[in-house]
Amino acid sequence: MADDLDDVTDESSESSEALIAVHWREEGYYPPPASFVAQANASDPAIREQFTEDKYPDCFTAYADLLTWYKKWDTVLDTSNAPFWKWWVGGELNASYNCVDRHLETHPNKAALIFVPEPEGDAHQAITYRELYVRVNEFAAVLRELGLKAGDRITFHMPMVPELPVAMLAAARLGIIHSQVFAGFSGTAAGHRIADSGSTVLVTIDGYYRSGDLLDHKVKADEAVEAAAKEGQQVDKVLVFRRYPGQYSAKTPMVEGRDVFVDDLLAAHKGEIVEPVALKATDPLFLMYTSGTTGRPKGCQHSIGGYLSYVAGTSKYYQDIHPDDTYWCMADIGWITGHSYIVYGPLALGTTSVIYEGTPNYPDAGRPWRIARQLGVNIFHTSPTAIRMLRKVGPDEPAKYDFHFKHMTTVGEPIEPEVWRWYYDNVGKDEAVIVDTWWQTETGGFLGSTLPAIDSAKPGSCGPAALGIYPVILDEDSNEVPAGSGKAGNICIRNPWPGVFQTIWGQPDRFVSTYYAKYNKDPKSTDWRDWPYFAGDGATQAADGYFRILGRVDDVINVAGHRLGTKELESAALTVNEVAEAAAVPVVDDVRGRMVEMYIALKPGFDASPEIEAKVKAAIETDIGKIARPKNIWIVPDMPKTRSGKIMRRVIAATSNFTDTGDITTLANPEVVEKIREQVQTAK
Ligand code: WT7
């Protein structure tokens, strides 16, 4: 366990994002339009009284009751093996049944998914609940034929195509634990996750469109299988969907005996029905890998009952989803946002969820608004990075199209108030509410947000805690930082909630040490009050109770809403032969919020050159993926270090961000700081 403690206590976290956070002034309130309030799922402020601490944990039965259970639970929350919380113990259900089958009775012919391909000339595909039912059953039959069963793991490395939710729901039908790896990650990154989860089957696709190019995605499967094999994990089967059924769109050949086209397999299972398996509420539904402080990504394990109830409840009250809405979340299903708020939450509520294959500004920044107009989207969900980009390249585009949102979400990073206002005025057209939802891969669903028909929005703040969530801001000595004090601290959640992840796959000690050890009052306690959840974010709370999230306090950099561990980046750079030392720091970026800058010191005998820079860039793209590409790589004469030899990331981050380096007199080599500053700041 000691090794893992550096997830939270490593002193190099002095470069953390929260330290370079821009401090905005307090903004005014934006009350919800009357037209929104009149139709909202939650419009009576009394709903808060149902979720006060004296009604906890039973208050969450309001969420569980949104689902259909084969067997009701005996115990709402079991804390006996703290902090491995168990929700809805004794209950049995199936996520696939809840997202598909049960809607057949009420609205079989309504679109469950609408797929919008990136090429604008290609027709969109509406998949009704009945069609989804057929597809999910047929693919479940394929998985069953391969011998996969409840508790086995399966890895998907899939882009934004409807085959991905079909595959997820097929796995969930049988209790197979799915692990979807974001398609933008490299084959090697997928391979690490295959090995960690112990998957023997990989599901992929030949190609997909991104910014006008039909990418060869199959090539990544070959790299993934090879990388997994190096870690001792054999992949027996690679199932390849075809982007254009009947026609192969990749240059990479199929591997005899290992690779199989899904449409060939499906032929033998036409119309086959696979009964959903009644699973325990506490059984795992999926793993979602995310970055931490140490090198190895963490497979966050989410439960069937707790997770599904939490995403259904928050989709209803915070996304304000009704079955007759057309809901579009422009995130990627490869991230938790897509799992919770493209697939499981919206489909559990029986609404129509839009899946867009491509980038928001392809072929131009009017694309999202044309899609919204054409499909009649009325709930829109995206990230500050996408909003910043659309505002930058197409500020006047929204006004050109006749679309009307009632509700909009921003998620994943802090949003600047002026960007928020552009979103509100131009995209929302003064008709829509905005929720700024704060949460994490680990938390399954929203932790902080306004209730859109009840609370006014305040640009730059996520709002108060979500229903049934009791946060507290703590300082390093476990003292509470009071609301309205203007002081920042570590935001923690005092209580378990149904959506919280169950453990890190295969690393239970790391789970406890990273998230619960820091503020635990007694390691033997089975009282949840002794186990505050440490979120890893810096935050302030205003006198009105609204939280402002400042960013990560650990060695994680949130680039465009995607978490990258500094150690992962540094280990990738260190694979380049000439590199002696590497340090990754966050730098403020106009569009992406934060980006990575990489500082490199070379081994003796090597001189800085564009070739070495290119090698570092390539190493990062191979190990992690293009999303991790640094904004700049600085090859410096030496790293500023403490006397014990530790690289001072705080000083480097200050150089990149033109902020004050603070006291450097205790460094072993203070003279190097000035040299680096001159080199970097004159080049910028
Ligand atoms: C980190 C979690 C939220 C799901 C997608 C990202 C940051 C998230 C907000 C927000 C400011 C936010 C935090 C958090 N973050 N939402 N509304 N305002 N910061 O999930 O990849 O697990 O990242 O994203 O720093 O810890 P993730």
Automatic annotation (TrEMBL):
The keyword Ligase applies. Residues 101-504 form the AMP-dependent synthetase/ligase domain. SUPFAM superfamilies: Acetyl-CoA synthetase-like (SSF56801). InterPro entries: Ac_CoA_lig (IPR011904), ACAS_N (IPR032387), AMP-bd_C (IPR025110), AMP-bd_C_sf (IPR045851), AMP-binding_CS (IPR020845), AMP-dep_synth/lig_dom (IPR000873), ANL_N_sf (IPR042099). One of its GO terms (biological process) is acetyl-CoA biosynthetic process from acetate. It holds the Pfam family AMP-binding_C. Coiled coil: none annotated. Residues 568-646 form the AMP-binding enzyme C-terminal domain. Residues 59-99 form the Acetyl-coenzyme A synthetase N-terminal domain. GO terms for molecular function: acetate-CoA ligase activity; AMP binding; ATP binding. Keywords: Acetylation, ATP-binding, Ligase, Nucleotide-binding. Its EC number is 6.2.1.1. Belongs to the ATP-dependent AMP-binding enzyme family. This is Acetate--CoA ligase. It comes from Trebonia kvetii. The gene is acs.
